[in-house]
Design goal:
With 242 residues, the protein is of the alpha/beta class. The protein has one domain. Helix content is 20%, strand content 14%. The chain has 5 helices and 8 strands; from the N terminus they run βαβαβαββαββαβ. Strands 3-4-5-6-7-8 form a 6-stranded parallel beta sheet. A two-stranded antiparallel sheet has the order 1-2.
Amino acid sequence: MKRSTIGWTDFSGGELNFVIGCTPVSEGCSHCYARAVVEDRGGRDFSKVTIYPGKLRGLRTAWFTVRDGEYRRGAGTRPMAFVVDLGDLFHPDVPDAFIAEAREALAGRDDVDWQILTKRPERLKELRFSGNVWLGVTVEGPRYLGRIDQLREIPAKVKFVSFEPLLERVTPDLRGISWVIVGGESGVDRRPFDVAWARSLRDQCAEAGIPFFYKQGSDRWPGMDDVLDGQTFKEWPRAAKR
């Protein structure tokens, strides 16, 4: 399995993309990196959502190992794997039956912590996931804070919010949230990012006792400019540590 360049997970891409494709739902989608990967590099129509049952079946026996023998959470922890980073598992074009298959497959690998991000939490209301599946929503500005309210109602051991790309200052209700990730937009056409927005979220997390992961500020390349007020913040959900 491919080691991820995304700082808050161990593995992404490849066979973990058992759904590829998506359509825009909000401002955060305007400079979607997944669309660039699929269309600019792959020459495919990103708006066509495709499922890959074979990839999903392959996860039942996939190996999650790293050359240095240590995962990003440190010694004694188990791997984290971010699934479907080139799409949205809960897109309307993904059949209910396939989502059910995904839930079963991920639950069957309790040696891995699976991370899922969506901008469509409304589809999660009737679903239950095993404790090794972390459910997260993306929130890019105050108009989408309702996604957190919807996430809060979903039974999951780890519920997280990715404020990336953060495009405005937000003051969220973080009750029941296990983890917060913050990042500005990257790329040559990146939109403005004010470090004060990240600082505010850091302080809100500190007050609420929620682990805070500062992924990046504003830079040409993803994952760069990851120092906030002279410190790096790479914190993980405490309940999920092994």
